[in-house]
Amino acid sequence: MEEQKITVRKQKKIRDYTKWKMILFGALAVGVILVAAFAPYLTPYDPYAQDLTQALKPPDRIHLLGTDRYGRDMLSRVIMGSQTTVFSALLLVLVITVIGSAVGIVCGYYGGKIDSFLMRLSDVFLAFPGMVFAIAVASVMSGGVMNAVVALACISWPKYARLARSQVLTVKSMPYMAAARLSGSGTVKIVLKHIVPNIAGPVIVTAVLDIGTMIMEIAGLSFLGLGATPPAAEWGSMMSNGRSMLQTSPWVILAPGFAIFLTVMVFNLAGDTVRDILDPRRQGRKGGGD
Amino acid sequence: MDRKEKRMKKYIGKRLLQLIPILLGITLLSFLLMNAGTADMVDVMESRTGAAFTEEQKQQMREELGLDRPLPEQYARWLVDVFRGDMGESLVSGQPVFQAFVSKLPATIYLTLTSVLATILLAVPLGILAAVKQNRLLDYLIRFLSFIGNSLPNFFVSLLLIYFFSLKLGLLPVMGSSGGWKSVILPTLTLAISMASKYTRQVRAAVLEEMNKDYVSGARARGVKERKILFGSVLKASMLTIITLLALSVGSLLGGTAIVESIFMWDGVGKMAVDAITMRDYPVIQAYVIWMAVIYVAVNLVTDLVYHYLDPRVRLGSEDA
Known about the structure:
By secondary structure, chain A is mainly alpha-helical. Helix content of chain A is 71%, strand content 0%. In chain B, helix 7 packs across helix 8. Chain B is flat and about 90 Å long. Chain B folds into 2 domains: 3-83, no CATH class; 101-311, MetI-like fold, CATH 1.10.3720.10. Chains A and B meet through helix 5, helix 6, helix 9 and helix 11 of A and helix 1, helix 6, helix 7, helix 8 and helix 10 of B.
């Protein structure tokens, strides 16, 4: 009996902060997106204006994050870079979510030949490890952030297709689906009204958790010279260009590096919280984290 | 036991059959990709050598290389060559691509193995510790650290490590695979930090799941010591999941080393591919893509088979439900 009491007392102690976490991290994520949206108006200096007399100045009161080798203000470039990186990551996640889920819904709903064909196709894409295929795609398409987005979209859609497909298969066997069909609903109506809302939760959770990963991968491709190309202010390529100055002027690397780190962290925190709210399997064991 | 072996054999056969369309898909996709560029091999060779060919010369070269044939025929010929281990010559060095790939593979495998080892040494104890101290300070600390590790791209981690350990403290060499055992430390650490951040959470989740099972409460009620429950039953049961997770990571690591290899000038296949990209050396990129995919598929298959063999709960052949 005593053991029982202790358990009860313990459960009372764990408060549910999920709502407050969502407000905080959601606000931070929106803040990052707003900074990216209004980047051109927020930069203290022109991010592309060169001033060789001011080259490689360490951070001081005039240039808060220092300057790069062309005397460009690092803070302005980091702010400007958020636009490229954050928006291409958001676009990428949107594209793969929509395409992947659409493929998954078609596969799960119709089954048969089209299902096995599309699933075999996704198997092939999943057979390439990590960024290997993205590197190949991006190298054929010769640079540009949009090409990096296309390259990453190629390798990332199958995850969503598989997720959506398995969700559709679960939903399909529910009694209300039979009821909907019996009452004369057409395919389009069934998909939009009964399937999409019911599979949206897990798909959205995956999508939000993917934003941070995609930011890192886009920056990674740019770092390799396969995404944004110099003069463009983009975090990955800024770090790549600063590599040789790591010893003498580390701020050239650290500023965009921490920008990536903090942005990814904000989106990951927001993603984790969205998962806690939306994922029904986690209900009741909150505080357990993973 | 006999029946199990029979079923196992049948399952292996089935998985090997499933491999055929995947391998064909991998090669077809890589082939199409390299033919999707606007410039073909002859154009690349022209711009590389700096020699201006006449249209007739170009045409002749295309005929020699078989580039004037229809795509399906080109693919079939190329595929036969690939299986013979002939993937053409590098446009830059003129050396056979496949041999170059094979000669650089050991360095990548070496780095992969040290990274997996470091990941195990970090992730397994930390994950178990976090699970045992669930919702206590230590758990929060470990989860916080793994969260930070998850938000750091590995090229940033490598630059940070170089900055502190090589440039500030002067402890370790910056780059190269020639500097003996010391040069492997930083690239290994880079890869292990991001991997361990991911796997610590999964080890923790696996151990927690096992600890929430009824038999654990049962053992506790009978007065079995916590330590004995943990090491005797819980860890034994969750080890299978943990080992599978780590084995699967070997495959993704092999492909994920490209950036880290090129930063640390580690002379493996990843660096070879990154160098080839800047030189537009398509045959090299192609060899890298195909063989990495094949290795990845093979590692995953073996892991899967071992998992099926070891785990009595997994029903063979029920994975495509």
